[in-house]
Amino acid sequence: MAVVKVDKLARSVVEGPSLMTGSIPTRDWMDIPVVFKPGNYAYPTKPNILEYLDSLEGVSFPNAREWNPEDDDWKLPENWKEIIINGLAERLGKFRSLKIFMDCCVRCGACADKCHFFLGTGDPKNMPVLRAELLRSVYRQEFTKAGKILGRMAGAREMTVGVLKEWFMYAYQCTECRRCSVFCPYGIDTAEITMMLRELLHLVGCGINWALEPVANSNRTGNHMGLTPQAFKGNIDFLCEDIENLTGIHIEPSFNRKGAEVLFITPSADVFAEPGLFTCMGYLLLFEAIGLDYTWSTYASEGGNFGLFTSNEMMKKLNGKMYAEAKRLGVKWILGGECGHMWRVVHQYMDTMNGPADFLEVPKSPITGTVFENARSTKMVHISEFTADLIYHNKIKLDKSRNSHVKATFHDSCNPARAMGLLEEPRYILDHVVDNWVEMPANTIREQTFCCGSGTALNTDEIMELRMRSGLPRANAVRYVADKHAVNTLACVCAIDRATLTTLMQYWNPDVEVCGVSELVGNALVIEGEKRADLTEGLRTMVF
Amino acid sequence: MVTDLKETLQSNKKKILSLWVDRTLNSYIASGFFKSSGDRFANPVGVNIREGLTRLFDLMLAGADPKEMLAPLDQVIRIRAVQEFSPSQAVAPILELKWVIRQVLGSGRNKRPPAEELDNFDCDVDRLALLAFDLYTECRELLYKNRVHEIKSGRYILTDSACASALAGNKKTGCAGVETS
To answer: What ipTM did this prediction achieve?
Structure first.
C-alpha cells in the first residue's frame, strides 16, 4: 500500500472517498472498465471441450481457442462484433420476452439492492438493473431510433471489446437465482438477460469451463462428472453396503430396468460426493421402506442440467435425454430427486422444449393413490412432494428422536422455491422428521430466499472469494438462527446447495452442517426388520 | 485545561463512530445502500460493519481484554477478507480510527487531550490492527483450506476413476475431467 500522507487523507475526506481503504472515485458506470485478476473470474472453457461440443448436432460452440481473461487480447474472431449484433438480432426475433425486457424497464430501482452479488460486493454493476443495462445499452445503440440518434444521452453505447469484457465479468457474477425478479413491478426476469448474455458470449467462444465441462460430460456419459455406467452403479452399491452396516437393511436397487413403474433421476453429486451421499442413502431407504417399483438409469444419471446456464439448445438436448430414457425403459412416470435447477428446466422450459411427455402416464403414487395433477404435463414429481404425500397418508413410520442431534433450519433453494413454488412440502416433511427446526428471517426465505452464491456453474474453486461474498446474505441469516437458536444443521433440497453451502458454512458458520431433507427422512425412518446400530449422527455415524 | 481522554471520546462517540463507519463504508463503490439500510438481513455488509465498529469502540473505551474484541473484529474483517481489497486495505479501517479521533477532537470546542493519553490510545488501536491482521490471515488460510477440501471431496475421486475415453487417450471426446496432465 502506498504511504498516504495525512494532508492527502484530510483532503480525501472533503474531496472524495478514503485513499487508505481502497475506494474508487465515482465515475459514470460506462467509464469504469473491468479488471480481471485471479479470484474474480472463472477459468475459460478448455478448447477440447468446446471442440467436442461444437461437433454435436443441434448446438453451436464455435471459436475454440486458448485465451486468458487477464490478457488484453482475447483472440476474438475478426468479425466478432458482427457475430454479436447478429446474434442479438436473432434472439430479439426469437424470444419475445427478451424484446420486452429490453424495452420495459423504467429503472425504478426496486431490484437494485436485492441481488446477493450486489449486497456482498457493493459493486453497482451487480445491481440487476445495471447488469441488464450492460446489454440494453448495446440494444439501444443498434436497435432503437433514440439510441442511434442520441447515443449516450439515450443510454446507448457502441459494442466494443471493453463492453464484451464487461459482459463476461458480470454474466458470471449472476447465479440466475431470480430474487430480483420477485421485486420487479414489471416482472423482468433478469436471469433470462444473463442467459442471453452468456449465449452471445458463447458465439465468440467466451465461456467458462466449469459450465461447459459438465455439459460435455453429461452429454457423453450421462452425468456431470463423466461417471461411467459401471462407476455410477458401483457408487450406489457402495452406499447400499453402508446402509446395511448402519441399519441392517439389505437393498438391491435395479439399474436400467425396463418395465419399472418409476424412473428415479437425481443429481449425480448425490451419488458421488459428500454430503449428497447421505441424501442418496435417504432416497434408497425410503424406496425400500415403501417397496417402490423403480429403477435408476446409468444413462439419465444426472438431474442437473448445466445447459440451462449455457444455451437454450444445450438445455433442451440435456433435458431430452431424461425423457428419451424414460421412453426407452417404458416407465410410467419420473420421480426426481433433490435438485435445484433441474426443476426450473422441468417446470418452466421442458413443456415447450421437449414436451408434452405424452408417452408417459400422469404420475400417480402407487402407495397412496394420489394423482399429481401439477405434473400432468411434465410427468415428473419432486421427491419432497412424493414424501410429503406418503407422510400425509401415514404410509411411513418416522421416529423424530433419531434426529435428536439435529437442530435445523431450512434454506429454500432458489429454483424449487421461485421457479416451481415448492415451499410447503419440505417444511411439512421437516415437521415430521425432526423435533425442532426454526425458520430464518422472513426476508431471507421462501420466494425471497437468498441464493447460495455459487449456482449456475459458479461453484468452482478459483472464484472462492467471489462465492464467499455473494453467499454472505444467506450465511448472515444462518448465523442469526445459529446464534439465537443453536441451529447446527442447514437443510435444503438442492445438490449444488449441499456442496456449496457446506463450503460457505465452513467460512461463515463453521458449526453448521448442511444436509438434504431426504437425509433427515432416512435418519428418522423406522423400517420393518431393521437391525439399527446406535446412530448418534444418523446416517453419518461411523460404524466399524 | 486537562481533560480525560476516555470521557472526551465517550462524549464524542456519536461523531467519531459516524465518521469512522462512513469512511469504512466509503470503500465500497456504491456505498449509499450500505450506509442507509438498517435491516441486518437485507444489508449484511453495512449493518455488520457498523455494529462491529461500534462494539469495538465501546470495548476500547471500557478497556476490555483483547480476547473480547475478537468477535466484533471478526464481524468486520471476515467480510473484508473476501472482498476485492488488498490485505492492507482490508485492515486499514482499524488504523483509521486514530485519524478519525484527531479529526473529531480537533474540531468544535473540544479540548485536545494530553498527548500521552492519546499515545496510549494509539497503542491500543495498533494492537487492534495487529489482531485484525491475524484474523485476516486466518480467514485467507481458511479460504485456501476450503478450496483444497472442495477439490478433495469430489473431483479427485473421478480423476482417479476409470473413464473409458481417458483410458483410450481419446481427447476428442472432451472428457477433460479425467485428463491426467
So the answer is: 0.91
